[in-house]
Amino acid sequence: MKFCSNCFNDTEIKNIINSINNTDVCDIHNVKSEHIYDTDKHDNLVPYFEALVDVYTVASESQIEIDKAKYVRLKYDLLYNWKIFNDVCKPENVHNIVKSICKEKYEESPSLFDNDIVIEELFDLEYKKEYSLLKTYSWDDFKTSLIKNNRYHTNIFNKKLFEQYCWAAPKFYSAGTKFYRGRISDKNGYSLEDMGCPPLKNSKAGRVNAEGVECLYLANNIETTINEVRAGVADYITIATFELQKDIIIADLKNINKISPFSIPDSNFLVNYAINKVHLSKINEEMSKVVRLSDTKLDYIPTQYICDFIKTLEREGSTNEVVRFAGVEYDSTLSSNGYNIAIFDPTLFKATNIEIRQINSLKYESTKIM
Ligand SMILES: [Zn+2]
Predict the structure, then answer these.
(1) What does pTM read for this prediction?
(2) I want to staple 127 with a disulfide (CB 3.0 to 4.6 A). Which of 121, 260, 321, 360 is the partner?
(3) CA of 31 to the centre of ligand 1 (A)
(4) 263: confidence class by pLDDT, cuts 50, 70, 90
(5) How do residues 80-99 score in pLDDT, each as one tens digit?
(6) Nearest CA to 253 among 283, 223, 225?
């Protein structure tokens, strides 16, 4: 079977296929490419996919009691849960591609490819205690324990594991990159000086920072900024452009649940990542939650805890320098193509330009909840 790198989403797999020089036609896309993986000629992908298939156990052979509703099929799990393949691939295409990459494995145990399978560790409490980000607890348990039991230290959150995921989801920005911040103002707007972080004594708690801790919240474009400040019709907004003063690296929480399972060559990583995808998605979801008037400072404590931890991480870079995350990045629920960053040290950015806008119209969408 022959396929091209565009049949995949996974960056590691794409890079491997793109490094192969072999001109042919992709069976899925039906287009010619200079980089075609041909399962009759190449075997670079075999160890990757064999390791992934090895994560599973045939459901009927599992020793653990598992609810049948939790059984999965390889083709659907790789496509919809791991998101390794591009949407152009249908489940049957995935089935054929994986079968033809792992020819020997398929002959050995066809049931793994054709029948119901499970990741046993997902249902193994002892395993989860050690390798799940929240052990056997839920996000709500974690939140309650921080709020009601111990604000600054917890045994629930597996920091060592989370650190590994943070370094696997870096985002680099070069000096000169522009971001935006908006504030509701009057017609005359605010001055450049008033558009940075509030002075420390007025610094309110947010999703990333505790009260009294500095943090600069910025959005990737003007549309997101306008949505994030949630102005009313006829309100004026002052929007400042902020320019990055030096190259930085930030922890990309919006992609931390989309790390390539092949990026860390360790079979435990695959299993652990499968267990933790749900928690990692929850972290981005909590970061992106719309700030409601009814929120109390306590609602932000779990994300503050996580961001404070990210702030402490450091490691040695390629030229022996100490590398630290300058902030975090997360989705904006208020803008479909937008995202936000929160920067720990506001002096990394300089406000360079101001514009004042007026809101002409708003669009409300609602869902009946009662
Ligand atoms: Zn293709």
Answers:
(1) 0.86
(2) 121
(3) 7
(4) confident
(5) 989 999 999 999 999 999 99
(6) 283
